[in-house]
Amino acid sequence: MSKETGPREPLKFAYWVPNVSGGLVVSKIEQRTDWGYEYNKRLARTAERNGFEYALSQVRYMASYGAAYQHESTSFSLALMLATERLKVIAAVHPGLWQPGVLAKFLATADHLSGGRAAVNVVSGWFKDEFTRLGEPWLEHGERYRRAEEFITYLKEIWTSEHAELHGDFYRLHDFDLKPKPLSGPDRPHPEIFQGGNSTAAQEMAGRVSDWYFANGNTPEGIATQVGNVSGVAAGHGRTVRFGVNGFMVARDSEAEARDVLREIIDRADREAVEGFGSAVTQAGKSAPDGTGMWQDSTFEDLVQYNDGFRTGLVGTPEQVAEQAIRHKRAGADLLLLGFLHFQEEVEYFGERVLPLIREMEAAEPGATSTPVAGEVA
């Protein structure tokens, strides 16, 4: 079963917050991107002026595969929300390293401070050392997703119920009333809950409990398959889910220039770091009972961008990139989560050269709507 057809909202855009050192590619190529707060504050303001509605703060607790330094995701997300006016910032978190009630309280406060712009990405986790070196147990694949599903169920229960009750295998609630609740409205009963993962377990979990499903980079055909799988599960539970797709964008004035940049990124890959990352994550992907986990078929070149962003095909001239973005929208994507080599400059290039073409192409689609998109430059 696929998503319902009919008029679609304009494609939304998010960017990866570079709150982790090393940029968005594991390469020794020059990256004019900085992981510090001042750079990120300026970037957030640039992004909301150039058509980005969301930003995703990464979560890392220790050095790994080229990322030597990391700022914590929830506090960094709140700081970026307070530095902007419209940007919704999604904080990635790991169940197992957070007590969900504590996170629910933090996000409720952040939601009030930001005027309703807090969101969360619940990540089941792939980096075993982050758990074991902190003295926390490491669960196998299926158990991590069962815990993540309970974690999301807990968040929703505590945010929406005055007498929250939950009796799960991992978490429990006993007649608990969180005050204040997060801000709510007709289209947003609580902060939006995002979730990633490519495995069957991840897709089924998204269909049951998540608001958004983030997919690793893929072709439009691959995305369409995932959209169909998740939407089918969601429909069986009387729900709908929206879909985000990871992509690394290399838009340049000529296709040759864009291809040369991509080739240099890969040619100058930090081979030791990429191979170490690949060894860790492909084992995580294959640990799913049916071998369908994330990265289970990723090549060395794919892993240079650590969420398979090259696979999404957003490389070329502004026209070529816009056409590929539309292909992903037709496949069911509601949002593209973008990474860049030089964030500040390329976010501006996207807003000036790529986004207007995407909006023109959307307007020409059958049954197109003219819904304005907040934050875009007129």
UniProtKB/TrEMBL annotation:
CDD domains noted in UniProt: Alkanesulfonate_monoxygenase
Residue ranges of domain Luciferase-like in the record: 13-334
Keyword field: Flavoprotein, FMN, Monooxygenase, Oxidoreductase
InterPro entries assigned to the protein according to its UniProt record, in alphabetical order: DMSO2_SphG (IPR024014), Luciferase-like_dom (IPR011251), Luciferase-like_sf (IPR036661), SsuD_RutA_monooxygenase (IPR050172)
Molecular function GO terms recorded: monooxygenase activity
Full protein name: Dimethyl sulfone monooxygenase SfnG
Organism this protein belongs to: Nocardioides lentus
Lineage per the UniProt record: Bacteria, Bacillati, Actinomycetota, Actinomycetes, Propionibacteriales
Gene for this chain: sfnG
